[in-house]
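User: Show me a protein chain along with its predicted structure.
Assistant: Here is one chain, sequence first, then structure tokens.
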Amino acid sequence: MSLSLTNKSYCKWFWDESLGGDYDNWGTSTYLLELGHDLYAIRQIEIYENGNVLFYDPSHIADDYGRLCDKQLNEEDVKDFAINKAEFEQIWQTKRPMNR
């Protein structure tokens, strides 16, 4: 069963590695993505172990910390890590990103 061609999808996963370099002390991170029907990211949230939060979207694609994912995700991975829109929106509306 394929993902809808009209609806957005949402996924979340834990990244068990730090960024390294100047940001190594941020620790591990959790990524949340809002994806279009083409499985490219529309909005992205990164929450780090030390409490830092980054947001990316079409109005803020990249900065010194990182960028909006520009790779098409695999449909199976999206299904395996799926979350609902409400979970994504709750974090988008309540967290304060340090890169805005």
